[in-house]
Write a structure and sequence with these properties.
About 45% of the residues lie in helices and about 15% in strands. By secondary structure, it is α/β, with parallel strands linked by helices. It has two domains: about 5-115, 3-Layer(aba) Sandwich (Rossmann fold); about 120-265, 3-Layer(aba) Sandwich (Rossmann fold), CATH 3.40.50. It has a four-stranded parallel sheet with strand order 2-1-3-4, sandwiched between helices. Strands 6-5-7-8 form a four-stranded parallel sheet, sandwiched between helices. The longest helix has 18 residues, at about 45-60.
């Protein structure tokens, strides 16, 4: 049986899952199942979560792992009754900060995901709306874009743009290189005018074939030959135009986004 990892939180559980996944990737053990338990914000929910975790451990005969971002110490105590390995994300930081700041923590449930800065929140929303309207070459007016991702269809442009908009408030547009662009081996004039904003994504043809096959099974678009042809032509064009390029084959969205921003000199911090 595979070992199960629970990401438990009094909020969405996104922080627990992000940190937990990052830590687990440091170990050469891939046999994990994961489950997120969000909004565990009352004693009743904590007891129910503990019972569920304990049951999974008994069924699998393997001790579960819990990555916990619940801030209320009493709820954490109830969760600990599950018998799992408990990894409290906040615990290592609380005591040193209390000593340094000279004040005790306030266990505010859900406060970590509160909308603290309305200006930052509005920046994210505006950037997301921009990205959605400038996805896949729908709107070719790039005057307000912070960056433009280019690449063949299904190379990871859209999820990267949305990540950059949601997390950093970056107005990220993307343009799919069409067969006509690849045949001409020229960038469209709309892109040439914004060359300093361009960043290219590429992908291994076999991986691209898998992605396209799941979207359009049995189509010419998804054949390995078509993927190989498009990727080869796209990389040739990208090198010819001297654009920065990154392969998304084995790279996470977070890493892609960070490398794109660093390469283009975009320094954006939102909290």
């Amino acid at each position: 049986m595979r070992r199960i990892v629970f990401y438990v939180s009094d909020g969405t559980g996104i922080t627990a899952a992000t940190i937990g996944h990052s830590v687990l990737t440091q170990f050469d053990v891939r046999e994990f199942d994961s489950m997120r338990l969000p909004f565990v914000d009352s004693p009743e929910k904590a007891r129910a979560a503990a019972a569920r975790i304990r049951h999974e451990g008994e069924q699998r005969k393997l001790r579960p792992i819990v990555v916990n971002t619940v801030v209320d110490p009493e709820l954490t105590r109830l969760l600990a009754d599950c018998g799992a390995l408990m990894l409290d994300v906040f615990a290592p930081f609380i005591a040193p900060l209390e000593q340094e700041l000279g004040v005790k923590r306030q266990s505010r449930v859900g406060h970590a995901h509160g909308m603290i800065n309305f200006a930052d929140y509005e920046t994210r929303i505006n950037a997301t709306n921009y990205t959605l309207t400038h996805d896949d070459g729908v709107d070719l007016n790039y005057a307000d874009a912070d960056l433009i991702l280019v690449g063949v269809s299904r190379s990871g442009k859209t999820p990267t743009c949305l990540y950059l908009a949601l997390h950093f408030g970056v107005k990220a547009a993307n343009y799919p290189l069409t067969p006509d662009d690849l045949d001409r081996q020229e960038l469209p004039k709309t892109l040439v005018a914004h060359r300093q904003k361009l960043f290219a994504l590429t992908i291994d043809p076999q991986r691209l074939q898998q992605v396209r096959e799941s979207r359009k099974p049995g189509s010419q678009y998804a054949t390995l030959a078509q993927c190989q042809k498009e990727v080869a032509a796209a990389e040739k064009l990208i090198r010819r135009e001297h654009l920065p390029m990154l392969s998304t084959t084995h790279t996470s969205i977070e890493e892609i986004g960070s490398k794109v921003m660093q390469t283009l000199g975009i320094d954006r911090q939102l909290f």
